[in-house]
Every structure is written in structure tokens, then in C-alpha cells.
Amino acid sequence: MKVLGIESSCDECAAAVVEDGWRVLSNVVATQIPFHAAYNGVVPEIASRMHTQWISRVVREALAKAALTPADIDGVAVTAHPGLLGSLLVGLSFAKAFAWARKLPFIAVDHMLAHLYAPRLSLESDATAQKTDAEIPSLPGYPFLGLLVSGGHSIVCKVDDFDRITVLGTTIDDAVGEAFDKVSKHYGFGYPGGAVIDKLAKTGDSGAFRFPLPNLYKGEHRYDLSYSGLKTAVINQLEQFRLKPAAGDSEAADIAASFQKTAVEILLRSLFRAVEDTGLNTIVAGGGVAANSYLRSRLAEREDLRCVFPSRELCGDNGAMIAGLGYQYLVRGETSPLSVTASARVKAFKRRYP
Ligand code: KG4
Ligand code: ZN
């Protein structure tokens, strides 16, 4: 079964074709990053306008790269939430029209559940492509712990199935990716901040600055995260940083490394608490921040845990994860009505999901 997946929740205009829920036949991601860089953040109005201009071409390219025509597609999946409303509506409307015109089963899915699904996908360039068909869909078995880390979300959850997660902890203020982006913006390192800081930190001393960790480990906040204190502390260092222009690049690298270490420590404290409490030792990470090399190396140190990451190409937003997740609903016979609408948030998001 070949499913067309469409994703437009933020600043990536993406479409992909995935076969049988795991084999990626094409994966086209048109990023708007250069258009938002001047503003150091995603401008919702620009994002939705660009999706409108690009979506048709992106879908056409996804079909062409898979050497398919619309007649070869067996189902359509699209992101309906969470995300920027204007952006979501572009992909959702396009997907509905495609499904309606071709009389195809249609499913609207959740973006965060799709990030958790990403490691089950196999790109041709990926080592997992060497595995047999039977092995990949069974990887990894439920339940496991999920670590969803992106520009909009930071979630530690228990995952019982592709469509069933329980949020154990979430951020009480900024998302982790947002903290990377804001620190980078204030220091003028570049946009988006995550990849820039990741690279810069490699030459820095992570012990050069000591930044505060939040004190959230009791009661209902046991697994919660907070990034506003860290962000403020790092930005408060800026005046000192500017006073030492001679230190230049090495000081910048030290700031990046010290910030990144603390940002990752905040995630790991919550995650490891969840490992201890639940006894689950398989972790699946997803979202843009899952590409972070320091996070990956810290998790690799824990030989008692099995940490599963999507390939770097599938960490960020893409249509393949939407198509893969959509397939699971479609084979179960579930579809969405064409009246389904987009929503910026997920109801009761804080503790239950979706
Ligand atoms: O999942 P994603 O592409 O979009 C959202 O759903 O938000 O995540 C984007 C976020 C941005 O905040 C970006 O700075 C961050 O992921 N990011 C990283 C890295 N690559 C992207 N953060 C840390 N290290 C990275 N290597
Ligand atoms: Zn995302």
C-alpha cells in the first residue's frame, strides 16, 4: 500500500510516498529557513503563504521521485495538529482535495505521534534498509519511553502504541529547541540555533560556564522541564561576552558548549527519572533536537538503555513520518471525514495525548 504523506505544520513544506508503512519511496522537504532567517524565527504569515505557493510542486516532485502517478497512490495522510494554524490548513486542504478527487482513503494525523513513528521508516541510504521487511515494522516493540524534542515541544512520554501515548512530563515554559534558537539569536550565532550551537559547541569547553538547572522533580512536576531559567542565565552572560571581543570565537564556543550541556542535562534528568520509575529501558527520540550530537553521545553512554533515533534526515519535519503513521490507521480501516479541521494545539495536551 502506497501512502502519500503531506506535512505543513511549521516551516517545512513536505511530501513523501511511503510503502507499507516503512519503505520510503520519496521524501521531499522544501525548507523555508532562508525566508525566516532575517526574523530569527518562523513568521506564521510568511510560512502559510509559502506553503500555498509550494505545496502543489512539492507533492508533484514526491510522486515523480517515487516514479509514480497519482493513480498509483492508495491513501493520503496529512498533519492536522499541532502547529501553526494557517500553515496546517494549507497541507490539510491540499490533502483533502487530492483524496477527494481520486476517491482515496484519507487520514488526518498528529505531528508528534508521527515524530515517534520516524525510526520505523527506512530510507534507501539508511543502514536499516539492509534489514528484512519483517524486521523493520517490528522495531522497537511497545511500550517504550518517548523523548519528543523540537522547536515547539519537549515531551517525555510512555508510548503504548503508534496512536497511544501518556505524557509524563512536558515543558512548563519554553521548548528545548526554542531555547537553542533564542540563545543563538541573542548571541548572533545564526538561525536556526540548534544545528549552529551543536556545531559551535564541538570546539568549546562545556565546563567554562555553570548555568542553573531547574528544581522540578516533585509531585506532578516530577518529569517536567523548564528552559526559561537557563535561557535567561545564558542571555545575561551576553554583556560580559561583549566586553571581551578579543576572546572571540573560543568564548562563543564555550558559551555554546556550556549551554548545550545544561539543556541536554535538563532533558536527561527527566528522562532517566522516567526510566527508573517505569522500568522501561527502550527510548525512542524524535523531533529536530533529536539530531543533537551531544544528546546522542550522552544517551549512547548508557549501555543499559536501548536508544532509537530516526536517521538525521528524518528527525526534522517530513512527509514520510506522516505517511508511515497514516498507513497504520488506514490498514486498521480508520479514516478521517473530509470535514476534519486543523488545530494549533492538542486538547488536554499537558497530561494526556492526543
Ligand atoms: O521538529 P522540528 O524540525 O520542527 C518543529 O516541530 O519544531 O524541530 C526544529 C527545532 C529547532 O528549534 C532547531 O533549532 C532544533 O530543532 N534543532 C536542533 C538541532 N537541529 C535542529 N537542536 C539541537 N541540535 C541540533 N543539531
Ligand atoms: Zn516537528
Care to describe what's here?
This protein is α/β, with parallel strands linked by helices and 354 residues long. It folds into 2 domains: 2-139 and 314-349, Nucleotidyltransferase, domain 5 (2-Layer Sandwich); 144-312, ATPase, nucleotide binding domain (Nucleotidyltransferase, domain 5, 2-Layer Sandwich), CATH 3.30.420.40. Helix content is 40%, strand content 19%. It contains 11 helices and 11 strands. It has helices at residues 33-37, 44-65, 85-102, 111-117, 176-187, 193-201, 228-236, 238-243, 248-278, 293-301, 319-331, and strands at 2-7, 12-19, 23-31, 75-81, 106-110, 144-149, 154-161, 164-170, 282-286, 306-308, 352-353. The strands form 2 sheets. The chain has a 6-stranded mixed beta sheet, sandwiched between helices. It has a 5-stranded mixed beta sheet with strand order 3-2-1-4-5, sandwiched between helices. Helix 2 packs parallel to helix 3 (85-102) and helix 5 runs antiparallel to helix 9.
Primary descriptors:
11 strands; alpha/beta; Nucleotidyltransferase, domain 5; binds zinc ion; single chain; binds 5'-O-[(R)-(carboxyoxy)(hydroxy)phosphoryl]adenosine; 11 helices; 2 domains; 354 residues
Task: Estimate the global geometry from the Cα principal axes.
Answer: globular
CATH class (first level) name of the largest domain: Alpha Beta
Q: How much is the average pLDDT?
A: 91
The molecules bound to the chains, other than polymers, are: 5'-O-[(R)-(carboxyoxy)(hydroxy)phosphoryl]adenosine, zinc ion
